[in-house]
Amino acid sequence: MESRTFAKPRRLNVESAIYGIATGEEKALQALYKQTSAAIYAYALTVTKNVYDAQDVTHDTFVKVYEAAPNYTPQGKPMSWILRITRNLCYDKFRKQSRETELTDEQLARQLSETDVNVTDRMVLKGCLLKLDDEERSVVVMHAVGGLKHREIAAELNLPLNTVLSKYNRALNKLKEILKGETS
Amino acid sequence: MKKKKIEQQVAQSFSNAQPDIYNSVAADCPTRAAAVAKPKNTTWGWKIATCALSLLLVVAIVFGGVMLGRNSNVPNEAVAASVTLDVNPSVSIQINSNRRVVKVEALNKDGLIIVGGKDFKGVQLELAVDAIIGSMLRHNYIRADANSVLVSVDSKQSEYNDLVNLISDEITVELKGQEISVNVVAQWIRSSDAASALAAQYGISLGKAQLITKILDNAPEGSTYTAENLVPLTVNELMLLMQNLDIPSDVLSQSGSANDPFVGSDVAKASALERAGLAEQAVTRLTCQIDNDDGLMVYEVEFVCDGWEYEINVNARTGEVVKFEKELAHHTAPVGERPTRERVLAVALEKAGLPEGTDVTSSQVAFDDKDKECEVKFSYNGTLYEMEIGYDLELISYQEKTVPVLPELPSENQWLNPSVDNELVRALLEFLNKKYGIDIALENTHGWEIEKETEHGRTTYDIEFKWRDYSTHYIFEFECEMDSNMNVLSYERERA
Fold this sequence. Notes:
The complex is a heterodimer. Chain A is mostly helical. Helices cover 73% and strands 0% of the residues of chain A. In chain A, helix 2 (28-48) packs across helix 4 and helix 6 (119-131) packs across helix 9. The two termini of chain B are 26 Å apart. In chain B, helix 4 crosses helix 5, helix 6 (193-202) crosses helix 7 (206-218) and helix 7 (206-218) packs parallel to helix 9. By secondary structure, chain B is of the alpha+beta class. Chains A and B meet through helix 1, helix 2, helix 3, helix 4 and helix 6 of A and helix 1, helix 2, strand 11 and strand 18 of B.
């Protein structure tokens, strides 16, 4: 049976949801969660490289968005704004813990063993978290999961557009090799 | 594995790995009792209707005490003003208080072609502008499809209008003689350290630097702009960005009209609304922004009507709708038993306006028993359809995307003989030459590999080749991706 495919967050839906949260609409928070939780968690995971920290950051991101919703002014992509909140929360976590995590294969395997991911998912996550550098990882997740355009990512990460494009291609080529190895 | 598939797999894997923490989030975010805030709409207070700037002409004139190499003992040599003409060639003209030329200087390689060995000393400013514009016309820097001009004047405010009128008239008359109707946009250069620093750092004109600093200074929190990614944009693209921002300005004027490759937001909105079958008065939250969608310049038109949220992409050059999406803003959870695949497809065909039993290609139906929704995809007649339909057979979301007609291009994995030329290769080399400031000639290339990928009705080309730069004798390897509209989606160069 074909499984339901992931859908990138859509600007108008995210914006509607934020507005709904600000004005007390029922189910607005649920709508926002449905649209954005995957992208937020993915990005948090790529920055923190820790499943539990990513979970905490995801939770805190929604709380921050909820608190800021009444003052939110729709300019640019709302997803950029949300992922910026996520990034800042990740760095707050690093500061509090006085560390940035260096993830090992065994640690990742142990963390993923507590999730429902299949073999391919495990391979992809391992590839992203262990084989890509920080910028490659951020670029891939922000584009593939967060739905941001390359130019938007360049602005968010303060990188030249050319650099973002080439890192993206390099990252996909690395993942292609990993997945080839898995299927063969 | 195709890049698109890898991208989808990455997204799906992260999505599958995410834990469901909604309940704990909801516990910390109770529903508010009353309306608190109203989102502000973005507005822009500076209407610049230029959409055809492929060349930039900047004239910066400094009056009133800005001296460059002044010699007060020789009044006719005293520099009272400086004129910078920037059309890709960049030329500086220094004039005295009588508006006669003291010195003309090329600021870049193309400027050297324009200026050549000419002597402009003592010539009236208007004649110098005529000669330089004429040279740019002859060398094809100014053309019918590249006819817009940005004039930046640095002077006393009292002098500004006279100077702009003088220069605008000269440019208009000169180009009218060539049957090119010009669009002249003028701005007053204000003394700004930021603009000067930007111009010096990137080697661009002060006028363009001023535009960029205006965008950066007035871009709201959350904007995606940096100097580095704005500098490569044409003035036309900068103008379009400025339209989306609320940038107050009282020093910009416009005359004439541009040969505009873009249809404009009014046409785009009309096209989108027509496709949706709605009148503008019937919709709310109508927005329209220029954007780039997989290499195609589009207007993204969005609006809400009767509980449906619409997102429609309009081809910026043709005004045709290329993507149509609508989704229910809120819907009650569907109920009912899972329908059959055939029933779902029949409903999907009806929603797409296709007759029952239409023979579609690549149809897929995915069932989500948890949300009681189906996801349907199929292609028909060059259009890709995607829908979400509830188990109660009610439509939740709808998307259709047209696929561009593919021109005649090389087949998969064809090794190109260097003597073989085609539109794709020509477009790519033109792009790379401009981007890197190099001069790749086809006969100096080899090892071409072009791989065509078609997925969901969309075709892209992965292209690799090598080029020997005879000025340095280095060999460079290029890896690029293009779409069927001849747009370069990505490019990379490495020294072999």
